[in-house]
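$ ./design --mode recover --in tokens.txt
reading tokens...
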């Protein structure tokens, strides 16, 4: 049985909620021993370590747990000598449900494929999101995929943020996944992003070399951290200037979380639509999302080693924003 990753206290983690099958559930009972008194759900978590706390709560709310012969809430108190009866369901092995969702395939081969991820589509299931992801879509589109990244990330070699659109390569075989992952680690994969940003950068080209780490004031953010951050390097080039904004090409030479977004903001030109890193700066035009697009990907073919280059066209919302900036300048 696949078990969720466990935190420091030993309880499974609900990155994706456990699926429970109550058909043919096994009825078990225990007698509370001295030292086990306290909340019912805490008692059950110790006796049923394969289940997450959230799953145990769901079992209780189905009246599948009896304390002294009566249905009990998770917060009920148990004392030594109490009899606890539970209808223990089967944990359904984790998987991603295939969904017939639109997905644009830029290149398809037997061992890998290259996609154009739509903005607003999460790459894989996570807490609070089990469907509608790219992983669900490609499980339907391609069937068998590499599971090297885990059962909830079939075929996923690298990620793009929720709002980021553009080129992504996926692995259809375990061997291709290993080869592609090695290429990303060795930095032999070249990535180019297009972005629309605030302001008028005072340069034509710049190399941003600033280590990144978790923001100590906000766990959802990354920040430039010279005190223990991981090395991060991004090359930036101005493509077009509009006065209140600019069009830039970014080449990340490392692959840190939110790297381009943090580096751009740290230099004073946050990406349009990026509420997390803009510092409250109002966008010069309406921005429907973080206007960042993975435009081009160059990587070694996982079978032959030959260079593969794939480009994703700018999506409609990006083009509309670009035209609005040009109109504002003119």
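writing sequence...
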């Amino acid at each position: 049985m696949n078990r969720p990753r466990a935190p420091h206290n030993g309880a499974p983690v609900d990155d994706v909620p456990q699926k429970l099958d109550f058909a043919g559930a096994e009825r078990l009972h225990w007698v509370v021993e001295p030292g086990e008194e306290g909340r019912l759900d805490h008692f059950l978590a110790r006796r049923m370590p394969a289940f997450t706390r959230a799953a145990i709560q769901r079992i209780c709310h189905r009246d599948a747990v009896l304390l002294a012969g009566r249905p009990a809430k998770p917060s009920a108190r148990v004392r030594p000598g109490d009899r606890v009866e539970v209808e223990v369901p089967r944990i359904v092995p984790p998987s991603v449900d295939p969904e017939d969702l639109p997905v644009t395939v830029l290149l398809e081969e037997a061992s890998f494929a290259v996609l154009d991820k739509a903005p607003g589509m999460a790459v894989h299931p996570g807490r609070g999101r089990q469907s509608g992801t790219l992983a669900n879509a490609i499980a339907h589109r391609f069937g068998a995929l590499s599971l090297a990244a885990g059962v909830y990330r079939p075929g996923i070699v690298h990620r793009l943020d929720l709002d980021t659109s553009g080129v992504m390569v996926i692995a259809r075989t375990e061997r291709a996944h290993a080869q592609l992952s090695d290429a990303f680690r060795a930095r032999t994969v070249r990535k180019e992003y297009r972005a629309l940003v605030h302001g008028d950068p005072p340069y034509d080209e710049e190399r941003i070399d600033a280590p990144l780490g978790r923001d100590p004031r906000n766990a959802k953010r990354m920040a430039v951290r010279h005190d223990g951050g991981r090395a991060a390097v991004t090359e930036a080039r101005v493509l077009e200037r509009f006065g209140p904004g600019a069009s830039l090409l970014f080449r990340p030479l490392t692959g840190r979380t939110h790297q381009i977004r943090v580096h751009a903001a740290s230099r004073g030109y946050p990406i349009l639509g990026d509420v997390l890193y803009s510092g409250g700066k109002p966008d010069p035009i309406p921005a429907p999302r973080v206007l960042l697009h993975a435009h081009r990907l160059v990587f070694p073919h996982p079978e032959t080693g030959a260079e593969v280059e794939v480009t994703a066209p700018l999506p409609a919302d990006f083009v509309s924003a670009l035209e609005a900036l040009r109109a504002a300048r003119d």
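exit 0
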